[in-house]
Write a structure and sequence with these properties.
The complex is a heterodimer of chains A (261) and B (330). Chain A is α/β, with parallel strands linked by helices and 261 residues long. Helix content of chain A is 38%, strand content 24%. In chain A, strands 6-7-8-3-9-10 form a 6-stranded mixed sheet, sandwiched between helices. Chain B has a domain of 192 residues: ABC transporter involved in vitamin B12 uptake, BtuC (Orthogonal Bundle), CATH 1.10.3470.10. Classes of the chains: A alpha/beta (261), B mainly alpha (330).
């Protein structure tokens, strides 16, 4: 936690803890992610990974500690304010706008970047048409990246599972984040889909200049694309480092396999 | 996006034709005065149900107090026209603004509640409004306000209804409207997509309330006497039936719901005690066989018949959604 590093980190959590009643979901959590990095957060079930995500996105407020994003504290902000600052996320249990079309799902996430007022909306004048045209085009471009362009007019709930996961990522990208949080993006996908997803995450990260933090149980995905990995157990970080280091770390092996390795 | 504007003009032209036909029937005394009055009531009910649909159907906030806002609009405007000789148009505007402000103030605390709790809170609020009016002697108290100038004609109602439909249709098909839809679909996801959910809930509630104010002002000037009994809980429930019957989240549905319910109650005018039984039966049957309402999320402008009438987008890909363009016919 040297001062010099402070500038490089896009998101930094210092001594964060989250207490639910008597349960410490996350304790003494120290974490940072630098601009442009692709970092993984792994750990056994119930280790507090999603709680960490909820802390970063303002769904929970930390009991103690500080979270700084892009040089400013985000503690106390509402989720939508944090998204407007540049953190977008996907959800472990898919949360699409299920009765709306695929295209509308993506368009909604552009909301903060749309520049026309209520009067222009209602009278259909001024910037309404040009802005709507722009959103429409940008949304379709995003869908194309995720191979959803021919499903644009389908209702989101009718998409196959893998496509819904991809749509969630597309929707998160439409909010134009600096930091993308992916909560188990490969959950329920077959090996082939997981591989495609890996390539896609690599590609969008390069294309959009994103910083990515992901939670994942699929070790091939985590070890394959993450540059750095944090391992959580019982709310505490027990190891961090490159995939090679993590794979050999005795603490991590113990946490995952048990025994006194 | 030019085609959207052309479609709006086409729908406007269609609305004018409908208006001309109906107006001709009225001025030519072909339509009996009973049905003339019902036509006015249908128009007012369309305004009520479409604006309630914005809150209940599009934003997914279960409000049960729409008649309360209507009462505010009605009383503010009739006091202005009767006691202060304010021109009708400005009285309607004042009624709308008063109802809107009240909606805004009531929305801030109550919209933190969800589902049933919100329904109970809004129901209580509309009862409070009604009982307050009942106890203000200046507006006639429980006996009602008498001697109101008879300003409301079919033309007034029709054009305000048209304005309401266009307003709400355009609102729904914009980024603000999509924000409201997102709240209905999944509030947590909406919030994490950068949508200030509280702001949009209050916005939808305020807009809905102001249009209820407009409807109230028109309603107030349609009769010589207005009493607080016209704005009871049953009345709010009536509008809810229209919205649910027509389809939550469909403007066409709200229009259809207003038509059907008003016709049923007009046809059963001689047997008022049967009305509620028939409503209840209709709702039960609806829930069994078509829980999404007559139209569901459908708009009449998305049907094959209307597609022929309306201009198509230049590129095949442009969205169908924006073609909702003109569900705004009478």
């Amino acid at each position: 936690m040297a001062e010099a590093k402070e500038d490089k980190a896009l998101l930094r959590a210092t001594d964060v803890s989250e207490v639910f009643g008597g349960l410490k979901a996350v304790a003494d959590f120290n974490f940072h992610i630098d601009k442009g990095e692709l970092v993984g957060l792994i750990g056994p079930n119930g280790a507090g990974k999603t709680t960490a995500f909820n802390l970063f996105t303002g769904v929970y407020q930390p009991t103690t500690g500080q979270i700084v994003f892009d040089g400013k504290s985000i503690v106390g902000l509402k989720p939508y304010q944090i998204t407007q600052r540049g953190i977008a996320r996907t959800f472990q249990n898919i949360r699409l706008f299920s009765e709306l079309t695929v295209l509308d799902n993506v368009k909604i996430a552009f909301h903060f970047h749309v520049k026309y007022g209520l009067l222009e909306t209602v009278l259909r004048m001024g910037r309404y048409f040009t802005e709507e045209e722009r959103i429409d085009k940008e949304a379709r471009d995003l869908l194309k990246i995720f191979h959803l362009e021919d499903k644009a007019d389908e209702v989101a709930k009718n998409l196959p599972y893998g496509a819904q996961r991809r749509l969630e990522i597309a929707r998160a990208l439409a909010a134009k984040p600096k930091l993308l949080l992916l909560d188990e993006p490969a959950a329920g996908m077959n090996p082939q889909e997981t591989k495609e997803l890996m390539d896609m995450i690599r590609w969008i990260r390069k294309e959009f200049g994103l910083t990515v933090l992901l939670i994942e149980h699929d070790m091939s995905l985590v070890m394959g694309i993450c540059e750095r990995i944090y391992v959580l157990e019982y709310g505490q970080i027990i190891a961090s480092g490159t995939p090679e280091v993590i794979q050999k770390d005795p603490e991590v092996i113990r946490a995952y396999l048990g025994g006194e390795a | 996006m030019k085609y959207l504007r052309i479609n709006d003009l086409k729908m406007l032209a269609l609305a004018m034709v409908i208006f001309a036909v109906l107006q001709l029937l009225i001025t030519g005394h072909i339509m009996s005065s009973f049905w003339q009055l019902n036509l006015i009531i249908i128009g007012i009910n369309v305004i009520m149900s479409v604006s309630l649909n914005l809150i209940n159907g599009y934003t997914g906030q279960f409000s049960l107090g729409h008649a309360g806002f209507m009462a505010v609009g009605a009383y503010v405007s009739i006091v202005l026209t009767t006691n202060f000789q304010v021109p009708f148009f400005f009285a309607i505007l004042a009624g709308a603004i008063a109802a809107g402000i009240l909606g805004f103030l009531i929305g801030i605390p109550t919209l933190r509640l969800r589902g049933d709790y919100l329904a109970i809170a809004t129901l209580g609020m509309s009862e409070i409004i009604r009982i307050c009016i009942m106890n203000i002697q200046y507006v006639g108290g429980a006996a009602g306000f008498k001697g109101i100038p008879h300003h409301t004609t079919f033309a007034w109602v029709f054009f305000f209804m048209l304005f309401t439909l266009f307003f709400i249709k355009n609102f729904v098909n914009s980024t603000d409207g999509r924000a409201c839809l997102a709240i209905r679909e999944n509030e947590i996801a909406a919030e994490s997509m950068g949508i200030n959910t509280t702001k949009y809930k209050i916005m939808a509630f305020t807009i809905g309330a102001s249009f209820a104010g407009v409807a109230g002002a028109l309603f107030g000037h349609a009769f010589y006497l207005v009493s607080p009994n016209s704005f009871t809980f049953m009345q709010s429930f009536n509008y809810l039936i229209m919205v649910v019957l027509g389809g939550l989240g469909s403007i066409t549905g709200s229009i259809a719901g207003a038509f059907v319910v008003t016709f049923i109650s007009a046809a059963l005018a001689s047997w008022p005690e049967f009305r509620m039984i028939i409503y209840a039966l209709a709702l039960i049957l609806m829930m069994f066989y078509r829980p999404q309402g007559l139209f569901g999320y459908m708009e009449v402008t998305n049907t094959a018949l209307f597609r022929k009438f309306l201009s198509k987008p230049a590129v095949k890909t442009a969205t169908d959604n924006s073609e909702k363009g003109g569900s705004a016919n009478g």
